Amino acid sequence: MAKSTFYYHVSQLSVPDKYDVIKERIYSIYEHHKGRYGYRRVALQLRNEGFPINHKTVQRLMADMGLKAKIKRVKYRSYKGEIGRVAPNVIARDFKTTGINQKWATDITEYKINDEKGYLSPILDMNNGEIVAYARSRHPDLNLVMKMVDEAIIRKNPPKGLILHSDQGWHYQHKMYQNKLKVNGLIQSMSRKGNCLDNSMMENFFGLMKSELLYLHRWNTIDDFEAALDEYIKYYNNDRIKLRLDGKSPAQYRALQISNH
Fold first, then answer.
1. Separation of CA 105 from chain center
2. Could you read off the pLDDT of 42-66 as tens digits, one per residue?
3. Are 8 and 65 in contact (CB under 8 A)?
4. In what helix (H) or strand (E) does residue 202 lie, and over which residues does it extend?
5. What is the rounded CA–CA span in Å between residue 233 and residue 136?
6. Could you tell me if 145 and 170 are in contact, meaning their C-beta atoms sit under 8 angstroms apart?
């Protein structure tokens, strides 16, 4: 008998609890998969076997048992594909507009809940600060950015000549992204390398989101946070007022501009 097996069974000689059977199965599943399974996959296997148990309970029980997935975590390196040309800085920190859908900004931010990472890629209208479209993913790949752009084009039908500003990230240098903008008549603009002030409006939104949502709560799962993130963006667009918009929310300010024309 393996030493780990012996000590585990010795520990079971204590007063039994309602999770005795579950713990036995957890240990068997863990050993069968040679420690490759973390609590999420163990919980799925238990449910497949007819045990109606929550993954949070499995996580707690595995922690009590000293069981942890032995998979070595490595830093994610996304495939960058072909890198295209760097676009000029058309915006040049001139964020002023006379109406909506003239200048947009975009960027990607990372959030981490427990051991899981997620990525948010939004487009912000520089006129009223509204998030016109966004996409979320567990991977910062090209699909994340392309999904965001497609949604923005479908929802807003932007006019020819609209400027879309970003940093010099590889996503925005990719041929697929640049061709998508060109085909739809959008003008690409890029910040100077290493200068976050050139995209300060987008950075300000990320700062607000993290201070008003991400850092205010202790999130149990990344799914919980992302559900709240979707609600926060709706709140930010429709209910959260801005001083520079005369006390109106981005959506209210947009509606007012439309009614005045």
1. 17
2. 887 888 788 888 888 989 988 888 8
3. yes
4. helix 200-209
5. 12
6. no
